[in-house]
Amino acid sequence: MVRIVEHGTWRLAAADESRHIPADGTLWNESYYFDFVTEDGSLGGYVRLGLYPNWGKAWYWACVTGPGRPLVLLADNEAPLPAPGETTVKTDSYLAAQEIREPFGPARVTLDGTAHVLPDATRAYGDLAAAETTRLVFDLEWQTVGGVYPYKDLPRYEIPCTVSGTVRVGDETFAITGSGERDHSWGERDWWSVSWLWTSGRLQDDTWFHGMQANIGFPLDWPSFAAAPQEAPVHLDGFGVETVFGDDDLPELSRLRLKGAPMTATPVAFAPVAMTSPDGVSARFPRALCRFETEDGRVGHGWTEWHQPPGWRDHGWSYLAEAPEAGR
Predict the structure, then answer these.
(1) How far apart are the first and last CA of the chain?
(2) What does the pLDDT profile of the chain (328 residues) look like in tens digits?
(3) Residue by residue, what is the 3-state secondary structure of 258-273?
(4) How many degrees, rounded to 5, is the angle at CA 226 between CA 303 and CA 49?
(5) pTM of the shown model
(6) How far apart are CA 157 and CA 225, in angstroms?
(7) Count of C-beta atoms within a 10 Å radius of residue 236
(8) Residue 224, class by beta-carbon neighbours within 10 Å (0-12 exposed, 13-18 middle, 19+ buried)?
(9) Are 264 and 254 in contact (CB under 8 A)?
(10) What is the 3 state secondary structure string of the chain?
(11) Where does residue 165 fall: left (phi above 0), alpha (psi -120 to 50 degrees), or beta otherwise?
(12) CA–CA distance from 85 to each of 22, 30, 65, 82, 90 (Å)?
């Protein structure tokens, strides 16, 4: 039986793995994420399906990248809404599906479509019409490890997983054996008002971890956990983060204050996207495949995101003047 952490003001139920009835508001959103990275950190990717029923559209993102590799990105912010109760997206250029076979258990994600090849990942922020394209195919399965972590006060949960299957980029096929996290959330999400950091990964001793901090001007008991091998996630209080950003606004390094395992997160390959509000306001969303190193010398890999809406540098980010040495 999958274990669910008892932590929060709402109780997670099996039905929450399915789609929810939307509340009012254009920005009511339902989001499914699937991250993955290989054991050695040489290749990783993610899929996100964001449903905006009151806006009349979906966002579908899928990518694969790695150190020394170009970003291969499919980012469609004008995707058609799946049929009620469904999560399959079909357009003239791709077919994307996800299947959660049992609540909080195995999930399969498939994709067959056309993606852009971006040697400079920041091109994802602009017009991709002239970019080279290639075929991108996913057939991947996420298997739950240990249990499920619900957020304390928000309808959202995270599931640490092993990930296996295949990824095809053009004529090249990769057998994937690694780790990742999948999550599901629903409610209003204004991408153009609040900045945040979200991170998850797996260390070499099979410790899974997760942390999230929104920059809202005051501290909270931010969602964070660690999960020992085959054990349910354990909530950790006191999570916080400090970051070095480069001149191009891409993060160079973050120091994660995760209780019991403080560590650095160093981006090794970026996979950003951009989004525009109903009123025409733009925001940037740098996500990166990261190498993690704890103060006691353990290393690992996973994904981190640093959301950047307008004015994000004034949102209460904790900055580092310069990057500390790895593991410090």
Answers:
(1) 39
(2) 688 877 777 789 999 999 999 999 999 999 999 999 999 999 999 999 999 999 999 999 999 999 999 999 999 999 999 999 999 999 999 999 999 999 999 999 999 999 999 999 999 999 999 999 999 999 999 999 999 999 998 999 999 999 999 999 999 999 999 999 999 999 999 999 999 999 999 999 999 999 999 999 888 899 999 999 889 999 999 999 999 999 889 999 999 999 999 999 999 999 999 999 999 999 999 999 999 999 999 999 999 999 999 999 998 888 775 555 544 3
(3) CCCCCEEEEEEEECCE
(4) 40
(5) 0.95
(6) 12
(7) 20
(8) buried
(9) yes
(10) CCEECCCCCCCCCHHHHCCCCCCCCCCEEEEEEEEEEECCCCCEEEEEEEEECCCCEEEEEEEEECCCCCEEEEEEEEECCCCCCCCCEECCCEEEEEEECCCCCCEEEEEEEEEEEECCHHHHHCCCCCCEEEEEEEEEEEEECCEEEECCCCCEEEEEEEEEEEEEECCEEEEEEEEEEEEEEEEECCCCCCEEEEEEEEECCCCEEEEEEEECCCCCCCCEEEECCCCCCEECCCCEEEEEECCCCCEEEEEEECCCCCEEEEEEEECCEEEECCCCCEEEECEEEEEEEECCCCEEEEEEEEEECCCHHHCCCCECCCCCCCCC
(11) left
(12) 12, 12, 31, 8, 15
Token pair listed for 17: 């793995």
Residue type, 206: D
Do the beta carbons of residue 35 and residue 303 sit within 8 Å?
yes
Distance CA 226, CA 228 (A): 7
User: Whole-angstrom Cα distance, residue 140 to residue 177?
Assistant: 10
